[in-house]
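## Example record

The block below lists the input lines for one assembly entry, exactly as stored, with component labels intact.
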Amino acid sequence: MSSRIIRADFPALAQLIHGQPLVYLDNAATTQKPRSVLDAMQRYYLEDNANVHRAAHTLAARATDAMESARARVAGLISSPAADQIVFTRGTTESINMVASGLSHRLHSRDRILVTALEHHSNFVPWQQCALRTGAHLDVVTVTPGGEIDLDDFRNKLCQETRIVAFAHVSNALGTVHPVHELVTTVRARSDALVLVDGAQAILHLPVDVQALDVDFYAFSGHKLFGPTGTGVLYGKRAGLEMLRPSQFGGEMIEHVTLDSSTFNTLPYRFEAGTPNIAGAVGLGAAVDYITGLERDSLLRQEESLIDDTICALTAMNGIRLIGTPTQRLGVVSFLVEGSSPHDVGTLLDQQGIAVRTGHHCAMPLMQSLGIGGTVRASFSLYNDQTDVERFVQAMHKTLTFL
Ligand code: PMP
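Predicted structure tokens for the full assembly:
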């Protein structure tokens, strides 16, 4: 199976931007959607639309089945032991906030939270806020000049008082793949801390098995794996999820209410207050079906070779500085053009039909560690092909002549 074939499944890729065929290299921000996802959502609204769970009629039963079958497929994608350990959220950000605020009642001033300087703000600021709220201490693992977690610093900062360790599976800014299993093993050997992994950038590019990784929580967004925006997942070990206090109340999360007090529903509904994003869950389920129907291994190998070619071509250009040289990288190439702002480079590329992202990529602590303000980031997905790389490289040559 080649990326050229699956490309045809994504209608948005077949368009002209400023008169040139679109080359979409902003996949770390969000991926385009295959027709099967769009069709599933439209069919849901055309035929099955109803509120879930609380009605006896046929449409409500169909909507409930559609949502719960999506949950079961998501559980299958990440090898969750059970579907009720999959909480539907609005995205990675909400999933992480749910854990950070849901655990606050267990943290005290002698406790410590360990994160890394490489995190997306969505896996940094919720912990910073949690520390401010609870008085716990926030320890931040430093990053090597090549853009990897400093493993010695990780080991040094991890201690008996560490209650939570949170880090990304793959960095959105540099593409660094973190050795999740090794890090989890280190945590287990030295503390009782819970481990949360931000899987936003990994979920499409790696087979994820939450049981093999032995993580307590795994968070990701639907829109990064060909699903709709406003969908996401929080996986948790049962014991971890049961420790969390809900922070939103009402709707299906309720079990019983009296004038004085309330009790809450079982997992996962306890964390899904209000009418959920049913159509979104349907779209996410269709995205999971789409991905599992692909020969993902061979597409990932093609994606890796496109990234190697891109790095090779950029290295051969004068005035380009690659940012991050991780030993294991996925999906992302970040760089700077000496003497030019990333924004100017991005704008010149856009005029040639190339979509890249520029700036700090919601990772300001990382940019501060590296002593830069931002980068130009080209990020790949399974539908990118050799033509995209050739067009990007040509456009970069032209851009350099303008700057
Ligand atoms: N973490 C990482 C590593 C990400 O790349 C992103 C999205 N760029 C997020 C968290 C936040 O995801 P979302 O905006 O979908 O909640």
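The chain has two domains: 3-25+295-402, 38-292. The first strand starts at residue 16 and ends at 17.
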